[in-house]
Amino acid sequence: MANEMLKNNISRILRTPGLEKIGFQLGALTVTGQKIGQVAQAIDNGRIKCLTVDELKAQGPIDLPKGMVVEARYKEELNAMLFRDAGYGMGPGEDRTVVHEAVHAAFDLLAPRKNFQTLAMDDESAAVLTEAIYIKVCDKPLGGFKMEAPGEEAWNLAGLMSIATENFTAGGIYDLAPSETADLRAAVAQNWGFITVKDKSGYTDNSHAMYVYNGVVKCGKSGVCK
C-alpha cells in the first residue's frame, strides 16, 4: 500500500544515525533527538498518521490559501503528517523537510496538556534550526538549504552550536540565549509573514501568534491506542 510505503520511509528518516545528538532549548521549546525518535515510534504504532495530499482530499477539502499547494505539513487536529505524494522523502532535500515537520509533530505528541500553545515564531525557528543541525550531525549534503531564508541564519547558528558542543558530542541541552536566536527569529518572521515586536522576553509574534497542540492519543499496555 502506498500509505504504508510513506509511513515506513518517514519513520526511517526520523531514525537516521546522528539525530540522537540533537538537543537544544529555544525560548520555551525543547528539541531533542529522543523526541524525534518518539515521533518515529508514534508513526510505527499508528498514533501519528502519514497521509498523502490525495488521501486527505478524499476526506474533504484542504484549507489552504488560494494558489497554494501542500509540500509537507503537520496537521495537529488529525494527528497526521501530510505529504505531497507516497514517495515523499526519497527526493533530494525532502528528508530535511520531514525532519522539520517532525519537530511540530513532537510538540503535539508531547504536549503537556490539551490546547497547549507555543509562540509560532519560536515553533518555526526551532524546526528550521533542527533541519540545519540534522544536515551537520547526519552528514547530509547542504544543497539549497543555506541559500533559502531562513536557512542561512539557521546554518550559521548551527555552526556556532557545533563549535560550542564539539560537533554536538558534548551531550545535554544547549540553552540558546535570545541574542543568539535574534537573526533566525527575524528571518523566520519575514519568511512566514509574522509581525515581530519587542517585549520583555525579546520577540513575540502578532500574526498567527500561537500554534495550538491538542496532544496525541496514548497507547495502553495492550497496545491499543485510543
Would you mind describing this structure in some detail?
The chain is an alpha/beta fold and 226 residues long. It has one domain (2-210). Helices cover 42% and strands 17% of the residues. The protein contains 7 helices and 10 strands. It has helices at residues 2-13, 33-44, 53-59, 94-109, 120-137, 151-164, 178-192, and strands spanning 23-26, 29-32, 49-52, 72-75, 80-83, 116-119, 174-175, 196-199, 202-205, 210-213. The strands form 4 sheets. The chain has a 3-stranded mixed sheet. Strand 4 (72-75) and strand 5 (80-83) form a beta hairpin. The protein starts with a helix and ends in a 13-residue tail after the last strand. The mean pLDDT is 86.
Give keywords:
alpha/beta; 3-stranded mixed sheet; 7 helices; globular
